[in-house]
Backbone:
């Protein structure tokens, strides 16, 4: 069975997971609100764990996990925008960029799922991760609204 499309999709998702982990670490270092700082640290830790799960899925399909962040300039730009927001130490701007990053992450999860077989361990793990990312995105959208008020 040729798993190359699944492996490629998971490697792309892995790269985007590295991007998100890095972005959350940067956010935790630059946000002023202590509760946001703690949440961002937890989210970075979660993305690290997600990366390990994705690597396991790739290996189980007979592939080799790629190292490094995504090569797509679009994703790179998202996290560069976050870094620019950090320069201002503006919590609302940081939340706004985190939310943009999460929208890209959700799109990456959906793309990966299109290339996985329903009912497989990899599919189930990626669905579970996507659902957790959705929950975080919903929470950060709410926080953006509250902090912007």
Residues:
């Amino acid at each position: 069975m040729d798993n190359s499309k699944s492996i490629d999709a998971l490697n792309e998702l892995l790269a985007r997971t590295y991007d998100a982990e890095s972005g959350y670490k940067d956010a935790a270092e630059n946000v002023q609100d202590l509760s946001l700082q703690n949440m961002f640290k937890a989210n970075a830790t979660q993305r690290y764990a997600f990366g390990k799960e994705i690597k396991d899925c790739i290996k189980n399909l007979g592939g080799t996990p790629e190292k490094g962040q995504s090569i797509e300039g679009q994703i790179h730009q998202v996290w560069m925008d976050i870094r620019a927001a950090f320069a201002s130490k503006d919590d609302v701007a940081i939340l706004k960029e985190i939310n943009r990053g999460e929208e890209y992450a959700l799109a990456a999860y959906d793309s990966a799922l299109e290339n996985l077989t329903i009912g497989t361990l990899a599919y189930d793990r990626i669905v579970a991760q996507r659902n957790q990312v959705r929950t975080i995105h919903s929470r950060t959208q709410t926080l953006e609204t509250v902090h912007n008020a």
